[in-house]
Amino acid sequence: MPTNLIVGYDGSPAANAAINAGAQLFPSAHAWIAHIWTPPFTSKRLRRRLRAAAESADDLAELIEREGAREADNIVGAGVALAKAAEWDAEPVVKRTIGSDGLRLAQLAERLHTDVVVVGDRGLGRTEAVIGSVSDMVVHYSTVPVLVVPNPLLTEEYAALAHGPVVVGYDGSAAAEAATDTARRLFPDRKVILAAVRDDDRDVVAGPATEGLEMLTVDETNWFGRARDRAIADELIAVGDRSDAAVLVVGSRGRSPAREVLLGSVAVATVHRSHRPVLVVHS
Hints:
Pfam families: Usp. Residues 3-150, 166-282 form the UspA domain. Belongs to the universal stress protein A family. The chain has two domains: 4-149, Rossmann fold (3-Layer(aba) Sandwich), CATH 3.40.50.620; 159-282, 3-Layer(aba) Sandwich (Rossmann fold). Helix content is 42%, strand content 21%. It has nine helices and ten strands. Helix 4 (101-111) crosses helix 5 (133-141) and helix 8 crosses helix 9.
């Protein structure tokens, strides 16, 4: 059965890269290409033209809504075309929102019963910062696994997407068990490697989800002045690099009904620091 996923798409190079990478990881998937827009959406140049044409403030608001909706349809259409060229069964979904685009995308993922949310780590305009508002909020609030695709990927990192192994951060917790189960379900034909970071020289106790999997135990190297979660994330990333991994998988312990990721956690540190795609799984 093909994977059912949703892609947050804003027309940016990072969003295009997310589709291309996602198609390598999930070939022949069914994909909702989702564009979330917030008025006033249209470009400054277009708004100047609309101000000149409008007879009143209400008229201007109506024109901006109309042109913004048309521009949103054009953007999502380009995303669908790219997804179909990548051999996905793609459909558009456009939603107007006021507030967090990322929260709205997370809600859509739940309502459409998707297996994965795919987002790029950079966008245009309001999402320009590294790990911008949309991708950050999706990771924070989604109950569906979230794949964050960094941009750009180096040649060898992109080549690994098609057949590379999956590296799962593992510590024996319920979150790590959920991450392992999800990795095996989403990537049934790939090698899954568990990267276990020892805490105070104590070995990690393997749970039932790890049966038959290779486990690599690495020692935590906590440099002076570096937070422990970053140190662990760097060890996981290093295992991914040595294994030429297609994707890193991390579990996250939610702390609220919305299953918000704990800021500063290993999961968030891995998303922020990895140059390879990272799949965050909420337990």
